[in-house]
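batch_manifest entry 22 of 60
target: Jasmonate O-methyltransferase
source organism: Oryza nivara
requested by: lab member K.T.
priority: normal
notes from requester: please return tokens only, no post-processing; we will run our own comparison against the previous entry in this batch. if the run fails, retry once and flag.
--- input ---
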Amino acid sequence: MTTKEILHMNAGHGETSYARNSAVQAITDLCEPTSTILPKSMAIADLGCSSGPNALTLVSAALDAIHHHCAQQQQPPPEVCVFLNDLPSNDFNSVAKSLATLKHSYGDLDDPVVITGIGMIPGSFYERLFPCGSLHFVCSSNSLHWLSKAPDDLKEGKIPMYDMVEHLRVSRRAAVGDAYARQFRKDFTQFLSLRAQELVTGGRMVISLYGRCSENPISRSNQAWQVVAVALNDMASRGIIDKEKLDSFYIPLYAPLENEVNEIIEDEGSFEINKMLVRNPFSGMDDATVSPKMIALSIRAVFESTVVLHFGSSEEIMDEFAKTVEQKLSSGSGWRAVLAAEYPLKSY
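--- output ---
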């Protein structure tokens, strides 16, 4: 079953401040280096907008940047059409509740950005979504590490994503990692090719996704779903979930190394990298305000739909899953040490 048929986020997840700042910078760069004049009309799209109160964060940042740029250049702001995309299973009802507020939020400004249309576009961003040459700016935050599907060669070869037997898990680690890397290359190449067709000449795109640090040996060998697999493995060992079902469970998620992202963009050839930033997503977290329980609940919100589809809908199973993740994060030297070892990610 493909990702677009099963995956959705539980409502309430926000975007990172890096993604917001990147969107502002990209809109500013949109008129450079050839001109400081924006077109009279623009279309912007957020791919993988999710749901909840922060679903419009990136689009709002882009509109703010357009308004600020036009004020600086003393030019009339363009008319803007906004598109919000996510998988059909996304909670678009909650997104719709925020759209009216977005459209009228610029009415009190001098020379406001005129939003002429807002559209919700359900579908996978690994498929064509818009007409050729129709978009001026595309953004996507915390979405592209999700694959179109888990690697077929693992499923066909009956190689578990995370083998319960440790020596088998270690011996197959490279094969599993390579299979996920190949699927990511295929999907990301497809994404770039499609967006190149949909963007106008000189259009801009900003993406952020979770990745791994190539200079960190632990990070190189681990996968983004490690913390989930460890918790499920623990539950299977205690008989809470079926061991055979665990062996056939695959999460369609891959966090690439930063050099992988560079190589795929260069090999595909449609885009030039204007700027790449890497940051530790856990560096700004305050131990006094962030607890293992809070992190466990966030992990549950992200992975619940995938876990439930495979192991069955059970509040007890998901409650135990969140509890097990919390226990893992609370062990040893605390959640920072556990995440650094099991979930060594960066976003860029």
